[in-house]
Write a structure and sequence with these properties.
CATH topology: HIT family, subunit A
CATH superfamily: HIT-like
Largest sheet: 5 strands, antiparallel
Motif (Histidine triad motif): 106-110
Helix content: 10-25%
Oligomer: single chain
Number of helices: 3
GO molecular function: catalytic activity
Shape: globular
Domain HIT: 9-122
CATH architecture: 2-Layer Sandwich
Active site: 108
Strand content: 15-25%
Number of strands: 5
Protein name: Histidine triad nucleotide-binding protein
Order of helices and strands: HEEEHHEE
Structural class: alpha+beta
Amino acid sequence: MPAYDDSNIFARILRGEIPSDTVLETEHTLVFRDIRPQAPVHVLVIPKGAYVSYDDFAANAPEAEIVDFHRALAQATRDLGVALDGGQGFRAITNAGEHGVQEVPHFHMHILGGRDMGRMVQPG
């Protein structure tokens, strides 16, 4: 696992050095709009702790952080109108490492919705 780099853009957002369009903030989680949206709804859900990837988060975060992250994600999908209890669904994506094409080395989950998202990946 690569070491966490606290100069990454999400760490800087969490420290208040870079503004974000916040959708929801809890004790352990921040949800904000993506600056390059790929769908009508496109937010990023990030833990406030220093985790590189989902597997790092799942293995090393305390239970309270893990629960808070997933509950915040669920609340955000409801607030944004894409949860299945009123919306038509969404896609949740996280990328890890080189093969996952991870651009920011801070664990984050993309929530995309508001239209049909098509195939998950192209065959091949």
